[in-house]
Amino acid sequence: MRGLTEEQEYAEECREALRRMVSGARENVVVGSETWGDRYTAERLGHYLKTLARDIAEEGDNPPYFGLIQYDGNAGEHRGQSYYLGRRHISDAIGRPPMVIDWRAPVSTTFYQATANDSRGLATRRRFGWAANTLTSFEDEQLGSAQAEATGFGSELVRREIERARVGPMRDIVATIQPEQDEVVRTELEVSVCVQGAPGTGKTAVGLHRAAYLLYAHRGRLQRNGVLVLGPNRAFLHYISAVLPTLGEVDVDQTTVEEMLAGRIAVRATDSVAAAVVKHDGRMAEIIRRALYERISEPLEPIVVADSSYKWRVQQYELAEMVTEARAHATAYLMGRERVIARVVASLQRQAEARGQNCNGVWLRKMARAVTPAVDAVWPAVKAEEVLAEILGEHSRLSRAADGLLSPGEQDAIAWPQPRKAKTALWTLADAVLLDELSALLERGETYGHVIVDEAQDLSPMECRAIARRCEHGSVTVLGDLAQGTTPWAARTWADQLGHLGKPEAELVALTTGYRVPASVVELANRLLTALPVEVPQTTSFRTDGQLTITESDDIVDAVQRALPHEGSIGVIAADQRIAVLNNALQSAGIDTVAPGGDGRVTVVPASLAKGLEYDHVIAVEPAEIVEAEPRGLNRLYVILTRAVSRLDVLHTRPLPRELS
Ligand SMILES: Nc1ncnc2c1ncn2[C@@H]1O[C@H](COP(=O)(O)OP(=O)(O)OP(=O)(O)O)[C@@H](O)[C@H]1O
């Protein structure tokens, strides 16, 4: 195997080859569009090459590879072979073996899965250390050797990478994916998985790498209907936004559940907690369905259409049969209505043809227009907003639809004080969820090939249904931690949540090794865990470093000044109502602060936005206040304490919550 100088030369050769790939792709765009006979093929080829050139250029000057595997003499088709592994495939010339293989290729699996006791045919696994894109070191593991089996192997490079200080947005973990994480990443596309993972076990990282893996392994299928990544809020999306592009994947939709749902309306009001709890409840699905289908009525008269000197007729009982048939078979309300119109027109056509009339396309369209008002009388066309405005605004309609499902108190919680038209309604976020349900009953929407949903413990049953509709024909990766559930409707078991997501068969996987939070902080957070009403395994920390300080003080300036000399990011996290005071105090002392998602050294984070984020040094301000601020305050505190990568400083003047002591 190569020494360091030769490895450095090889890295340079790989970079050179990559540059040739980019310029070759750009050149071929021109040549392809000028010479390709068929325009469609030329366009497809051009698109592919442009995308390749853009992707490679966007990835920037990343190290060309991070690992090397060398197979032993008994490894079948790979016997004695060596492969370099990187973020993308690099080839020198057509017909020659690739210089670097994509980390997602099947042969790369052994790099992640081989252990001292199970070498998977590998003789050596080499990991490379890079400093500012210069290759500075490597580390070899002699797998399968008696010594490796006896002692196991702890990679210093992996440890350094996991323990490094965090600056800026989240980075990819391709070089150091751990075996249990790799299994989730490479689960096949057809299989839905649900990962219950303690804080910092890499759920988000695993989800993003799974998106990249699936796009590589099933590009053809996923290019048509795509991959959707759903996160809890904008700050979180900003935090994870760089990961997929560095992995070469720029065409993944990343959004929040709220944005996905609120797209169609302007949210102008906020529900009371009591109203939101009812609106997010799974029973609302049936209420909405009833209210919509209540509009379909028994026909009261036949349909009669005058056509030249004839009158065509569909009898009342025939129309009733058509309505019953469409209700039984149509998969959406508006589709059912179309089906009734089509059947009525077909009946008129039979009558006209029996009289020798020529029923061409123009005639059929004229008849469809003529019968529509009569069909509307029994099966009216409606808009989602109109139906919801009537459910919430008309007490009699709500009580009919909610009969036996909602108590009078629950109905009162969601009823508007007076009727309103859809156009003037003050819609809330929870209404957006209900409108999405209604729209899907009216017309089926588009679906994705795969949906990755993070912080899934916080989703309401109605939000889960909205996601389920978007992956009805695809699969999901559900990521979450029941202990971090903070919404009023947060899941207590994954079985319930997977049922709402329409994937009860999803494989449940537990990740318990934490890569973010140091052992001393995990120990503190685990004390809270026993007080939370959910059953989840405790975390163990991969990290031996880190520091926990508990200070009886409210001097935030002093706490931040003590943090500043250390390397890495600083997050000051406190109950939402305290944020303004903390910002003022810090800024008056000349310390610049930013909000989550901002670019700065010291971020002041409202407790409600901390989920999914991490900071090297966390200052958690007044835990008692965080706990009191909301019904699931203890869960919130658990989230906040586990944001710390290297140091956690708990500042308090009031007694700590007894669950922490
Ligand atoms: N195999 C790994 N190698 C290097 N770093 C890792 C690895 N796994 C996780 N990490 C790092 O650990 C940190 C936590 O990962 P991540 O945010 O994905 O965890 P999580 O389970 O989603 O956490 P939480 O539930 O607390 O939000 C991140 O900085 C991530 O890059």
From TrEMBL:
Task: Spell out where the chain crosses the membrane.
Answer: none
What domain of life does the UniProt record list for this protein's source? Bacteria
What's a GO biological-process term for it? recombinational repair
Q: GO MF terms on file?
A: 3'-5' DNA helicase activity; ATP binding; DNA binding; hydrolase activity
Q: Which Pfam families match?
A: UvrD-helicase
Q: Does the keyword Nucleotide-binding apply?
A: yes
Query: Sorted alphabetically, which Gene3D superfamilies does this protein's record hold?
Result: P-loop containing nucleotide triphosphate hydrolases (3.40.50.300)
Q: Name one GO cellular component term.
A: cytosol
Q: Does the keyword ATP-binding apply?
A: yes
Residues bound to ATP: 197-204
The UniProt keywords, alphabetically, are: ATP-binding, Helicase, Hydrolase, Nucleotide-binding
Q: Which residues form the UvrD-like helicase ATP-binding domain?
A: 176-518
The protein's name in its UniProt record: AAA family ATPase
